[in-house]
Records
---
Amino acid sequence: MSGAPSEIAVAPSAPARIIILGATSAIAEAAARLWAARGARLLLAGRNEARLNEIASDLKTRGAAEAIDWPLDCAGADASIELGKMVDRLGGLDILLLAYGVLGDQAELERDPAAAAKFIVTNFSSAAAWCLAAASVLEQQRAGTLLVIGSVAGDRGRRSNFIYGATKGGLAHLVEGIAHKLAPLGARAVIIKPGFVDTPMTAAIVNKGALWAKPEAIAASVVRAGEKGGPEVYAPTFWRGIMLIIRNLPSAIFNKINI
Ligand SMILES: NC(=O)c1ccc[n+]([C@@H]2O[C@H](COP(=O)([O-])OP(=O)(O)OC[C@H]3O[C@@H](n4cnc5c(N)ncnc54)[C@H](OP(=O)(O)O)[C@@H]3O)[C@@H](O)[C@H]2O)c1
């Protein structure tokens, strides 16, 4: 067949428009690198302006079509207004990754109600406001994905970190409900539950054993969750089995374990 094209031309798909809240987090940065390599357009929100700037420059060298630094205290912002500005800047939203969070010191938070209240605003109330704002955008678009980094600590309250765990457990329920609401519309929400991850958040923990993961491994789960799966992803996946056991341990046994 002379003159017939040997290849069918395929229109390149538009770069994914991705917003990252807490873009200076080690896990978020590793995920951003994976997205940059795919030519995404990234909007990076965080409160450390100098680090954001460095990360944005690095992501451009790694292939990002765009990397916009967006200095912001995510816990203090009006999520709905700020998200509107971000989405306008990108011209839509394909993925929002909520990564920011603080670990806190359980003993100190138990002693200081004001510190506990502030902690809960950072890890839960402000995050919930962002999730609701994002859900509203995705609902209108009838497309796109909300990714939220929770924690296995949210699966069962433990004496060593139940305030942190409560914030992450609350987020998990919220995201699960948003996922349920968005599913019939063609949009998605996923709560990603890492176990122990070697990042600045856990730098003070000295004995890191076999259960510890690198941020790059969690980032791979985050990026996969942006494509399919959910509404709940354990990272690494073996934590699903561990948490199944922990959640189902009878209190008589659980109360004797110092975790
Ligand atoms: N590391 C773990 O073992 C582990 C396990 C399970 C879940 N997680 C969760 O994973 C997420 C990422 O943590 P990570 O391990 O990557 O630790 P990380 O590198 O310490 O990241 C936490 C990030 O949150 C940012 N942040 C805190 N408050 C903020 C605010 N008000 N506005 C904007 N950014 C704020 C911090 O920015 P600054 O530099 O400005 O403080 C920091 O970049 C967190 O939600 C964490 O709870 C971590």
---
Amino acid sequence: MSFDPDAPAEGGNLYGLPFDPDQARIHVQAVPWQATTSYRRGTREGPDSLLGASMQVDLFDLEYGEVWQAGIALLPEDARFRAWDAQAEPDALAVIESLGRAPEAAARVNVLSQRVNDAVYERARESLAQGRVPALIGGDHSTPFGLIRAVAERYPGVGVLHVDAHADLRDAYEGFAFSHASIMFNVLRHIADVSRITQVGIRDVGAAELALIHAEPRLRTFFDPALGDRLAAGETWLGLVDEIIETLPPRVYVSFDVDGMEPALCPGTGTPVPGGLAWRQVCSLLRRLSERRELVGFDVNEIGPDEWDGNVAARLFYKLCGAAVRSGPGR
Ligand SMILES: [Mn+2]
């Protein structure tokens, strides 16, 4: 191949890479869907924001090396996602403005959410059948449900590492059954083959969510304030990271809501919260994970539309590609 990784990237493909899906280890779905975003909208532009900024990412990564050589292919965008999002928008806004008191509108959005879930699932199944690592760029945090379902079907017993400011454990939110705020509740309820969800960075949680965290044996939550206190008392981040990874089974899927990081790293995200993980903390968490577990799929979601949000998300996504490529039995 005549591709020169040091040359300026040509536009169009993720990271300017030349791969078509047949040559790529990692298959990426872009899902520009934000219907259930309740606070600040714009995460529909997340995939484009990441794609545009990805041209600026150096293809040699100091932690993972020549990640790109394994092949990273952005699959052709399924045009139905934007169509469904546009169709859902008036109903979604009616639901949000009525503070959840518009059940008929919510029901119509739920039908479209189900279609998004099914489309993502079907495409991810194809990638998995070909031995690829499926990945996804959101969109709001409802978008990876179908991907997690497909990964759990392929790898029963898989664990989910969930990085987020929010627990996302609401039993529907505002009437949206597949809300961004319900993704992990829905994984627990509908995907029995996920054996464990380990949450990191959580600092915004409701009373019912807290009760579920305490009652549900498949959940393990590392609250952001508790991690911060332990660091302040002199524990090391790597020690905490090992404790986090210890809770996960041999195969892991990573669902990464960018608002799990410090808001300076994701200022345009839908629901930013002070606190959160620093960039180097994220990097060492992912690298250690790649050394000790097999990373079998991942998503980055709730990316804001602005250039900086895209820049950080593109680098985060590349780190996840690196972690996936270097992890697992063949590393
Ligand atoms: Mn989330």
